[in-house]
Amino acid sequence: MIILDGKKISNDIKDEIAAEVKKMKDKGEKVPHLAAIIVGNDGASLTYVGSKVKACERVGFESTLVQMSNTTSDVELLDKIQELNEDPEIDGFIVQLPLPPQINEQKVLLAVDPNKDVDGFHPTNFGKMALDMSTFIPATPFGILELLDRYGVETKGKHTVVIGRSHIVGRPMSILMGRKGFPGNSTVTLTHSHTKNITQITSQADIIISALGVPDFLKAEMVKDDAVIIDVGITRVPDETKPRGYRIVGDVDFANVCKKASYITPVPGGVGPMTIAMLLKNTLLARERHML
Ligand code: NAP
């Protein structure tokens, strides 16, 4: 069994990006600038955004954090998005999800300039991805592709089962694994909460990508020998023995599934750090596009 070490690979990617940024600086060029908008005080969202800002510092990007109150209206948020769309200093930006209930998420995603949409959530970018065109691939699926690529995990002709069909992970992942190319060329089954006999389906999978957010959902008896297991799930489970009062748990019963798997991602230290690295990669791409 081989651990797909997202922490290590993400550090490699950050080193590569930092080297690119250094070249830009040496040539006197403007370095990439990522902005993040966060609305409200959700603890997990603040942690994620904080990690993104820190990652920018690590690779030498400029970063801007825009914090808006929990009572922000649709109009106020759309105005701020317009401002970032028009700001030539900003190469790419993200709007941290989830948003408070008074805000229409679809309107917000549509308002982001597709050329600055480094999350890859705008329908234009999602459509380009589905049509095999060059675009921003959503960071989590992009990170999974990169892990499979760097470990040389064969995907051609394999049966990939994706659990979860969210717009940010499961759905794009199912499209990407079925694309022509590497990683890709898989035969994909996309499962969700209405899927019947899920054990029968997962136990036929060569590759399982689990993105549902239910701790320890995927048990050893749902997995065939030598399967590749990608665990996207991140759930905070209360744990008084931890300094923060919780621990992070994935979707996979790691202790038992790892005995059958050929490759497996740990939680934490698997897909999570890759997501941030690929957001940086998309921002670098946005910077390079603006220079054309
Ligand atoms: P989401 O929007 O809540 O979607 C969950 C999906 O799982 C839905 O499609 C749902 O089906 C499906 N599902 C729920 N229960 C199921 C069951 N019993 N059997 C089969 N499918 C089931 O979640 P998300 O945003 O994709 O996130 C999923 C998990 O990944 C969460 O733990 C999240 O924190 C984590 N995550 C991690 C990263 C990272 O960087 N590692 C990034 C993003 C998300 P329906 O469509 O039928 O409701």
Please characterize this protein's 3D structure:
The chain has 292 residues and is of the alpha/beta class. The chain has helices at residues 6-26, 43-59, 74-86, 105-111, 123-130, 139-150, 170-177, 198-202, 254-257, 271-291; strands at residues 2-3, 33-39, 62-68, 92-95, 159-163, 187-191, 207-210, 228-231, 235-238, 246-249, 263-264. The strands form three sheets. A six-stranded parallel β-sheet has the order 1-11-8-7-5-6. Strand 9 and strand 10 (246-249) form a beta hairpin. The longest helix is centred in the first third of the chain and has 21 residues, at 6-26. The termini are far apart. Bound molecules: NADP nicotinamide-adenine-dinucleotide phosphate. The site of NADP nicotinamide-adenine-dinucleotide phosphate has 25 residues, from helix 10.
List keywords for this structure.
six-stranded parallel sheet; three-stranded parallel sheet; 10 helices; 11 strands; globular
Write the layout of secondary structure elements.
Layout: E1 2-3, H1 6-26, E2 33-39, H2 43-59, E3 62-68, H3 74-86, E4 92-95, H4 105-111, H5 123-130, H6 139-150, E5 159-163, H7 170-177, E6 187-191, H8 198-202, E7 207-210, E8 228-231, E9 235-238, E10 246-249, H9 254-257, E11 263-264, H10 271-291
Parallel strand pairs: 1-11, 2-3, 2-4, 5-6, 5-7, 7-8, 8-11
Antiparallel strand pairs: 9-10
